[in-house]
Each structure stands twice: as C-alpha cells, then as structure tokens.
Amino acid sequence: MCYLEAMRLILSSFMIILVMLSCKTRSKAVENSQTSSVDSVSGGVDGQRVATTLAFYEKVLIPPKFTQLKITGKVEVNIPNTFTPQLNSTMYIVQDEKIWMNMNVLFINAARALATPNGIEAYVKTERSYIQSDFHYINNLLNVNFINYKTLEKLLLGRTFVKLSSKQYQMHKTKEGYTLASVVPQQFSDTDNEGVYHVKLEYAENYDLLKVDLQDTKSKNKLFIEYLEWVDFEQMRLPKYVKIIIKGGKSGEILLENTKFESQKMNTPFSIPKNYSKIEIQ
C-alpha cells in the first residue's frame, strides 16, 4: 500500500488521527512542568516574572475535565495529486478512553474509525479497505514519532500536547499573548523511536493555544498546527477550526471545522465489514 493511499485512508477517515494529559490536580501539573525553575519573561521585576510564569504553565498544562464530548463538523484533506471531497463528520470523545468518528459524503456513510490507548482501527467503504495498527503508523504519516492516544486527544481539543519544562523553554510576552520557544532541542519519543525537535508555541492572552510549530532537527520534516476561533462550551474553551500542515518527506494539509459541540452520550458502533482488504503500510 503506497503512502498516499494510506494517508488518505487514515486522514480522511479519522480527520488525521492526529496529537494528552489525563486529568491531574493543579499542583501535579505545575510539578511536572518544572515551573519551580522559572524562565525569563520579558518585562517586569523578578517577582512579576515568577508569578506570570507560574500562572502561564498552570493554565496551559491543566486539561479540561469532561466525561464525553460530541463534535459535529467537516473535514477537508489536501494531499498532492490526490482528490478527497469535503467530508461531514461526527466525532465522539470519551476522555482518556476512546475517540470514535463517522464520516459521510452527501449523507452516504464513507468511513468510520476508532482510536483507543491500544491503537487505531479505520475503514473506508468506497475503497473496501481497512487499517488496524498501533500509533507507530500515525507517527510515520505525520513525520513525527511521539503521538499516542493522549497526545491525539489533546491535539484534537487544542491542548498543549508536547512536554514542557521551564528550564528548556523561554517564554516571551507579546501584544497578542505569549510565545514559548525551546532553547535546546526537545526529545520526544514513543516506545521504540526517539525524535529531536525545535518547538515553538503561541498562545493568546487568555491562554488559548494558537499555533504549534515542530521541526525535526535531523531532517526537513515539519508539523504545523493552527487553532482558530475559540468558543466557550460548558466551562471549556474549544477551537472551531484546527488546521494541520505536514511538510518534508511527506506533505499534506487537513482542515477540521467543528461546527457544533454537545455533551450528550451516544452509541459508537464499530466493526470492520467482512471481505475488506487490510492496508499494509510500508
């Protein structure tokens, strides 16, 4: 199975199976981010720098608490030399347990996918094909190597999905909010592989995540994610648009438009139809 076919299957059927922390207490999140060692913040006296940095890390590292979240929306996938129509999507997230997604074109069911901490499954009806894998394949498609279930969940919801340490990042206060940039290359890894990245994150004044820029130091691979038009929903902040750009050895662009958020429970049936062909990613 060639890369383009595999990428189209996964991205179009699971809106990228893109990239986080389980719910923890405020003190635990601050401890893990090592905010006791404070970076410099432009402007202000030392006391103000410490207070600003502590508040920043607490806000960006503590994830929202919810039981389940239903998101209705649309997905656009752009891959060179490949056409994929705009897809209507329904995504259902049970925090820390599963991400289920159903996609259709003109009210016709086109694809369905399920991600759990154990891996992913997805199938596309039009191609009568399916995939069953761990997250190694998703990492390969996105030119990274650190995505697991938790990072995927955070990525979809606009939460900080990379590890942060105040000793290894420098924070700058800007007119728009905050910029956080790694001062040393960051090592992220799954169970088998390790990558080294330059990382830059941008946040709004209210700590909404705006942009994530990851550049592999060992190659020309890049992953850029942008979050737009944040909205309030049941004491949570959620992005209306998630834009993902992949550059390097593989290229592609995905736009997720979240048009409606709900907290209701829903059934999430998933079974791979018989006689479908399994995709083996090389």
Automatic annotation (TrEMBL):
Organism: Bergeyella zoohelcum
Name of the protein described by the UniProt record: DUF4292 domain-containing protein
Domain of life: Bacteria
InterPro entries (UniProt xref): DUF4292
